[in-house]
Amino acid sequence: MLAQQKKHTTHCKNSKKYYVGPVATEFVATNTGIWRIERPEVKIEDCIFCGTCQKHCPPNVISVEKADENRGVHFDWNYCKGCGICANVCPKKCIQMIPEGSVCKL
Amino acid sequence: MLTMKSDAKGLVANGVSFCHGCGLELAARIVLDVLGPNTVIVVPPGCAAMLSGYGNETVTKIPGFQGNLENTAAYAAGIKAGFEMQGRSDVQVLGFAGDGATVDIGLQALSGALERGDKILYICYDNEAYMNTGIQGSGSTPLNCWTTTTPGGKSVYRKDMVGIVAAHKIPYVATASVGYVDDLRKKVEKAKAATAEGPAYLHIHIPCPTGWGNKPETSIEVAKLAVQSLCWPLYEIVNGDEYKLTVAVSKPKEVAEYIKLQKRFAGASAEEIAELQQGVEQEYARLLKRIG
Amino acid sequence: MSTRVLLDGNGAASIGLKLAQVKVISAYPITPQSPISEKLADYVVDGSLKAKYIRVESEHSAMSCAIGAQLTGVRAGTATSSVGLALMHEVLGVAAGCRIPIVMPVVNRSLVAPWSLWCDHQDAMAERDGGWMQLYAESAQEVLDLILIAYRTAEDARVLLPTMVCLDGFFLSHMSDTVHVPEQATVDSFMPPYTCHNVRLDPDDPMFINDLTPTAEFTEMRFQQAVAFENAFDVLEEAMADFKKVFGREYSLIEAYQCEDAEVVIVTLGSMSGTGKYVVDKMRAQGKKVGILKITSFRPFPAEQIKKALANVATVGVMDRCAGLGAEVGPVATEVRAALSGKSVQGFIGGLAGRDLSPVTFEKAFNQLLNKELTDKVEWIDVREDALTIREVK
C-alpha cells in the first residue's frame, strides 16, 4: 500500500477533472524575438508589395499591407528571429539586415 | 479544450524554437495552412516534435500525438481507422516525419500502410540527416556529404525513397521544396484530395542551416539551387506510373554552385564533386525516361 | 442466457474481443496466437463483428495501430505471443504511459533463443514492470471471462491501465473445452460501451498527447500509474463481484485451493493450476495436507491476499514457468518471497518451452516440500541430468 496514496485520490470532491499521463493542454508561443542579433529593415519606397518576404518567412511574422491605412511591411518583433531570409529572397533587394538595437525605440 | 495563452496567425504559434532559417518551420506552416483544423498530426521524436511542445505547453492548435521513431505511419493508420469507424472519415490524418524516421527506421511501417491503402497523408521532411540528435547520417544523406557519422563524406548514394513509395502504386506521390512554396502548396492540396481514395505521400526538401552549414538567410536560395541543379527535381506521380515534372529546369546549374553554399560539402574533392554531378545527371535522365 | 460451445483458448479469446465489440483490429499472426488473428478476420468478413481489420505488417505496428485507434475513442483489438510481444515492447510503454486501456490476449510462449514454439511465461514476465495489468487464465472459460473483467477494470476512470489476459500456449490456446458463451445483451449489461475518460484525439477538442515531459513532472506521471495499480485491486474485486451477479461464475485475485489447513502449498500461474489441483486431490486422498494457490491477477500483485492465504502454511513453493536468469529464484517466486518476508519459500523452475508440468512433476515438488528438502537457491524441478552434455562435438 502506498503511504502517500492516502493524500492522493483520483476522485476529486470539487468539479475539476484532471488528465493523467503526458499531454499538453495550453497553447503558447516561445519568445523567439529575443534571439535576434539582427533585424530586417525595409526601404519602403522601393518595395513593390509582392509578398515574397511574407511567403518565405519561416515563423510567419511578416504582413504586407497594400491598402492605404496601415500600408507597409510589418514585422511581429515578438517572434522575428532575424534569420535574414526575407532580405535574401526580396526581388527588389529592398530589405537589409541591421544590427538589433541600432534602431532607436521611442 | 486548449487554453489559448497566445494569439497566432494560423495553426502553429509564431514563436517556436526552430533554428534560424529552418526550412521545416516554413514547410510545417504551409502544410497545416492547407490542411486546416480538421486534421490530426502524428510526429515522431525529431525536429518536428518541436510542434508537440514541452510539458503542458504546445505550439500547435490541432490535435496531435508524438509516437516513436519508426511507427508514425502505423499510428496514423490506426487513428484513421478509428475515425472511419465513427463516421468521421473527413478527419485528415497526417504523419509528419523526417528522413531518418521514414527512409531508415520508418520504412517498414510506411510500406505496410501504403500496401494496405490506409487513407493517410504521409509527409517526409527531408533535411538529409538525423538533425535533431546532432547531424548523424541517414539513408537520405547525399553522396560525399559530411555528417557526424560520415565524417569522411558518405561513400554511398542516398535511397530513392520516392521510387520506393511509387512502387506501392498509391494515388498520389510528389517531391516538393521550400524553395518553391506555390508548388508545395498545390501539392499539399492534391495530396489532401487524394486521401479520399488512398494514401498520399509528399517528400519535401528541407534545408537545415545547422546541419548543412549554409548561412540561415540562404535557406530558400539553397533550396532553389537544389532544384535548379537537378539535385532535387520537382515532380509528381499519380497512381504509381503517371510521372509529371511540375517545375521545368531549362538551363540546369552546376551541382558545384549548389553545394558551395554548404559547409557539409566543403571536404568534397574535385573528383567527388564530379562524381556528384554525374550521379545527379544519371538520376535525372532516369526520371525523364519515366516521364516519357 | 448463454450457450455451451466447444472452444479452445484462442476461440474463447476471439469471442471475448467480439463481445467487447472492438471497432479496429490490428493483429499480426504468430504461433500459437494465429487462430485469433484469423478468427477475428472471419468475424469481420461474415459481418458478425463491425470492425476495420488492419492487416498490419508487424506486432510493433499492431500495437501502434491499436493505440492510434483507441485514442480516437473506440476499442481496439490485438493479440500476440512470445517474440511478437517482445517486438511490441517499446510500444507497450506508450499504451501504459498514455493510460490507454487496451485489453490484449497474450498466448504465453517462450522467448528466443533457443527457438521454441511452445508454452512458458517468459514473454509476459519480460513485460511485468511495464505498466500493464496481467491476468492469467486457467481454462478457456477463464480466458473469456477474464477478458470481460479486464475491460471493466481497465476502462474504469480510477484505473486506465492496459491489460494482458494471458493464456498458456497450446495447453490452453489449442485445448478444447466447454465454454459458456454469454449473449451480447448480457455482456452489454456488464460492460458499458467504451468511454474515453482521459486524453483523446479529436479536432473538436485539440490537445497534444505524449509530448516531451520535464523531469519536474515525470515522476508524478509514473506515480499516477502506481496509484492506478493500487486502485485496480478494488476495481478488479468490484468487477469480479458484479461478474458473479451477472454471469454466475466466481473470480478473485487469487484462488486458494485447499490451503486452509495445508502444510504445504505450491503457488501457480495459468493452466498448470488445473494439474496442481488434480494432484492436490490425489494427495489429499492419501492424507497429505497440500494445497494450490493460483494467482489470477499477477499485476497488480496481490501481496496482501497471498500473505493472508498462506499465513498458517508451513512450507510454500512457487512453480515458475520462466527461468528468471541471473536472479536467485524465478520472477513469481521472487515476489511471493517478498510478500511472505521471513517465511521460507522454495522456488521451482519447470515447464519451460512446452515441457509438460505433469502430475508427476507436481507430486515430486509437493513431496520435496513435505520432506522439507528446501534450498535458498531455485530448484530446476524437471531439468535433465545430462543438461550440459546434450550436444557432443563430433
Give the key terms.
heterotrimer; A: 106 residues; mainly beta; Alpha-Beta Plaits; two-stranded antiparallel sheet; 2 helices; disordered N terminus; C: 394 residues; alpha/beta; Rossmann fold; 2 domains; 5-stranded mixed β-sheet; 12 helices
Tell me what the structure shows.
Chain A is mainly β. Helix content of chain A is 9%, strand content 21%. The radius of gyration of chain A is 23 Å and the shape is elongated. Chain B is an alpha/beta fold and 292 residues long. Chain B has a single domain, classed as Rossmann fold, CATH 3.40.50.970. Chain B has 10 helices and 10 strands. In chain B, a hairpin with a 3-residue loop joins strand 9 and strand 10. The longest helix of chain B is centred in the last third of the chain and has 22 residues. In chain C, 39% of the residues lie in helices and 18% in strands. In chain C, the strands form 4 sheets. Chain C has a 6-stranded mixed beta sheet, with helices on both faces. Chain C is globular, with a radius of gyration of 21 Å. At the B-C interface, strand 2, strand 4, helix 2 and helix 4 of B face helix 3, helix 4 and strand 10 of C. Strand 1 of chain A pairs antiparallel with strand 10 of chain C, so a sheet runs across the interface.
User: Beta fraction of the residues of chain B?
Assistant: 15-25%
Overall CATH architecture of chain B: 3-Layer(aba) Sandwich
Mean pLDDT of chain B: 97
Write the H/E string of chain A, N to C. EEEHEEHE
First CA to last CA of chain B: what distance?
51 Å
Number of helices of chain B: 10
CATH topology assignment of the domain at 35-106 in chain A: Alpha-Beta Plaits
Strand content of chain A: 15-25%
Short synopsis of the structure:
Chain B is of the alpha/beta class and 292 residues long. Chain B has helices at residues 23-35, 72-84, 99-104, 107-116, 161-166, 181-194, 209-212, 219-228, 255-259, 270-291, and strands at residues 3-4, 39-43, 57-58, 64-66, 92-98, 121-126, 172-177, 200-205, 235-238, 242-245. By secondary structure, chain C is of the alpha/beta class.
Topology, element by element:
The complex is a heterotrimer of chains A (106), B (292) and C (394).
Chain A: E1 23-24, E2 26-27, E3 38-42, H1 52-56, E4 62-65, E5 72-75, H2 85-89, E6 95-99
Antiparallel strand pairs in A: 3-6, 4-5
Chain B: E1 3-4, H1 23-35, E2 39-43, E3 57-58, E4 64-66, H2 72-84, E5 92-98, H3 99-104, H4 107-116, E6 121-126, H5 161-166, E7 172-177, H6 181-194, E8 200-205, H7 209-212, H8 219-228, E9 235-238, E10 242-245, H9 255-259, H10 270-291
Helix pairs in contact in B: 1-6, 2-4
Chain C: E1 2-7, H1 9-19, E2 24-25, H2 34-45, E3 52-53, H3 59-71, E4 76-77, E5 80-81, H4 82-97, E6 103-108, H5 122-125, E7 133-136, H6 140-154, E8 163-168, E9 177-182, H7 184-190, E10 208-209, H8 215-247, E11 254-257, E12 264-269, H9 272-285, E13 290-295, E14 297-299, H10 303-309, E15 315-320, H11 331-339, E16 345-349, H12 359-370, E17 379-380
Parallel strand pairs in C: 2-3, 2-4, 5-6, 6-8, 7-8, 12-13, 12-15, 15-16, 16-17
Antiparallel strand pairs in C: 1-9, 7-14, 11-13
Helix pairs in contact in C: 1-2, 1-6, 3-4, 6-8, 10-11
